[in-house]
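Long-time lurker. I teach an intro course on protein structure, and each term I like to show students one example going from raw sequence to a predicted 3D structure in C-alpha cell notation. This year I'd like something fresh instead of my usual example. Would anyone be willing to generate the C-alpha cells for the chain below so I can use it in lecture? Attribution to the forum is fine with me.
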Amino acid sequence: MKKIQFKCTLLSDVILSVKAASEGNQSTLDFIPGNSFLGIVASQLYKKETYRESFEIFHSGKVRFGDAHCAKNGIRSVKIPLVFYYPKLKKMEEECYVIHKVTNLSSDEMIHKQLKQCRSGFYCFSNEKILKTFLPKTFAIKSAYDKDYRRSYDEKMYGYESLNQGAEFYFDVTFDDAITDMVQSNVKKALEGVHRIGRSKTAQYGLVKIETCTFDSYNSNLPKFVKTGELIEVYADGRLIFMDQYGVPTFQPSAEDLGIPEGKIRWDLSQVRTFQYSPWNFKRQAYDADRCGIEKGSVFIVEVQKETSLEHSGFVGFYQNEGFGKVIYNPDFLGADSNGRILYQFSKEKDTEAICKKEKASTLQEKYIPAGDSSLLVYLRKRKEQEQQKYKIYRAINQFVNGNKDYFKGTTFASQWGEIRSIALRSINDNEVIDNIRTYIGHGIKEKDWNVKKRKELLLKFLETHLGNGMNMKELVINLASEMAKTCK
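-- Reply from a regular --
Happy to contribute to a lecture. Here you go:
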C-alpha cells in the first residue's frame, strides 16, 4: 500500500454542513470529509481517464481519500477517544482515565468521582503530550436573493456556520499496490492547487489550497503476533459504515468486519457513538440513501479467539474511497497506568492562530505599511488606490453600455447577464473569468443569440482590452453584468 500526504489550507471561510437540510440550525463539521477531495479529482479526471482507470480510482475502493483533520505544530489531530473519562467536577486536563483499563470502577472512590465521557474536540498526541487544537468558527446570517427586483427576499433568512480562514488540515490518499504510478501522479496533480469545497461555493466561501507535505502517523502498540485471550483496541480514526448479510446498515459489526477474523467484540468494554445523515448527490440533484454508521473516536475492544497477526492500521467497512473506514489497532495514545489513568499529559500551551494566517498577515504588512509611515497615511494611500480603481472600472463600463446597449435589448438577455455575473463571482483569477465567459457564450443554445449583431465579439474585445492593465477583471465583469441587465429590461 502506498500513501501520499497533503496539507489543505483554508484561503476563505468554508461551510461543511453536518446535515444536507437547508432548514433549522446549521452547524459545520470539525473536519473535511474525504469525499470533498474525491469530488475535486473526479471533476478533472473522470472523463479524461480511460474507463478502466476511472473505475479503479473512483469505484473500486483501491484509492482512498482520507478525511482531513486540523493540525497544530505540524501534527495531525485525531478525535478524542470515547474511552477517555474524567471526574464530573473536574476538568479533563486535571484527571483523565481510560475507562476499560480502570480495575476498581465499583469502588467507593471511583463512584464518588462520577466519571463523564469525553465526546468532543480534536487533539494532537506527540512526545507524551496532548495538545488541544483550536478551530475557530463563524456564524453568519444570510438572505435569499431576488433576481427580478435585485434585493433580498422577504422572510427568507437563514444562517451558516463556517470554519474560519487560515486553518490548516492534514490528510492522505492511499493506493493499493495494483494502482500504477501514472494514476497516482494524475491524482496528485489533480489535487494540488487552489480549489473550492463545501457549500455556497459561488459566494465567498469554500476556497482552499492543497499541497503535498509530510506528517507523522500515530504509533501502535500492537505486537507482531496477538495471542489468544488478549484484547485489541480498535480506534475509529474515520467514520465507519457496516452492512449486514442483507445489505442493511448495522450498528453492530462483527469482529471480522473490524479486520479481526478470529475474535469476539467485548461490548461491555467498548465505547461507541453513531451517526445518520442523507448525502446530497449534486449530479442527480437528489438525496442518496441514508448512511448510518459509527462516529470518529469510537473504540471497540476485541478479544482474540485464536493467535493472529494484524497491520497497525487498516480500512474496514464500506465507502472507503470517501474517507470512511480507517482504523488504528492499539494506538499508543490509549495507554494507561495500573490505575487506568492516561499516560499522556495535557499540554498547558495556549491556543494560537494558524501558521498560514500569521504568514498572510506579515505579507500584507510588508506590502502596505512601509517603514516610517503612519497608519493614517497608509490608510489614505490605500483608499486612494481603491477609489482610482473604481473610477477606471465605472468609466469603462459606462462607455461600453452607452455605445452598445442597442445590441443587447430584450428581457432574454437580462438572465444571461445574470449568469455572466455568477461566472465572474466563482472564477479564481482574471484569465479564468474571460475563459469561462468565452465558453459560456460560445457553446450551447445561447451561442446563436450571441452571434447575432456580433455581440460575442463586442464583449470579448472589451474584456481582452482591459485585461492586464491593472484593472480588477472580476469587479469589472460583475458591475458590467449588473448594469447591462438593467439596460436589457
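Some talking points for your students: The two ends are 60 Å apart (CA to CA). Residues 231-318 form a domain with the Immunoglobulin-like fold (CATH 2.60.40).
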